[in-house]
Write a structure and sequence with these properties.
mainly alpha; 9 helices; globular
Length: about 160
C-alpha cells in the first residue's frame, strides 16, 4: 500500500491515485484495507486534496469494526491531525492528537509521536500557549538515535515554535 507514496514522490501521483483506487476497491476489510485507505489519504494530503484526505484518514482511524491495526490507526490519526491543522480546524487537530496519544500510551507504539507533537506544538504556538507548546517539544524530542521519520517532525515542531515566538 505504501508503493503509491513512492510513485507520487517520483512525480507519478496520477498513477498512484489509480493504483490506490484499484487497491481499495479490492480490499474491503482488515489491516490491508485500512493501510491502503490511510496511504491514499496521505497521498491526498501530499497533493493538496484536503477534503479527500480527511475522508480517507477518518475512515482509516477505527480498528474495531473492520479488524484494523493500532499502528495504522496511529499513522492515520497523525496525518488527520495535520490535515485538520492545515484546514484551520485547530481544536479538532488537538482532539485528534490527544486521542492518538492515548492510543500510543496504551499500545506503546511511539513511532508517530513526534508527528503528533509537531501538530500540537504548532497549534499551541499559534495560540501563544507556550507551556503547552514546550511540553509537546519535549515529547517530540527523539535525540540523535531516532529514526528520520521521527526526528524530522520534531525538528519542524521546534522551528514552528521558534518562528511563532
Amino acid at each position: 500500500a505504501i508503493r503509491g507514496l513512492g510513485l507520487a514522490a517520483t512525480g507519478r501521483a496520477k498513477q498512484a491515485r489509480r493504483d490506490y483506487e484499484q487497491l481499495t476497491t479490492r480490499l474491503r476489510h482488515g489491516a490491508q484495507a485500512q493501510r491502503a485507505t490511510m496511504a491514499r489519504g496521505w497521498l491526498n494530503l501530499l497533493t493538496d486534496r484536503l477534503d479527500d484526505a480527511r475522508v480517507d484518514l477518518e475512515t482509516a482511524v477505527p480498528t474495531s469494526y473492520l479488524g484494523g491495526s493500532a499502528r495504522i490507526s496511529l499513522w492515520a490519526r497523525a496525518w488527520l491531525a495535520r490535515t485538520q491543522f492545515l484546514t484551520g480546524e485547530l481544536d479538532s487537530a488537538l482532539t485528534t492528537v490527544r486521542e492518538a496519544e492515548e492510543l500510543q500510551d496504551r499500545t506503546g507504539i511511539l513511532l508517530t509521536g513526534p508527528l503528533l507533537s509537531w501538530t500540537a506544538a504548532a497549534v499551541h504556538a499559534l495560540r501563544g500557549e507556550w507551556d503547552a507548546a514546550d511540553a509537546h517539544l519535549l515529547r517530540s524530542d527523539t535525540g540523535a538515535s531516532g529514526y528520520p521519520i521521527m526526528r524530522i517532525p520534531g525538528l519542524l515542531a521546534r522551528a514552528h515554535v521558534a518562528e511563532a515566538r
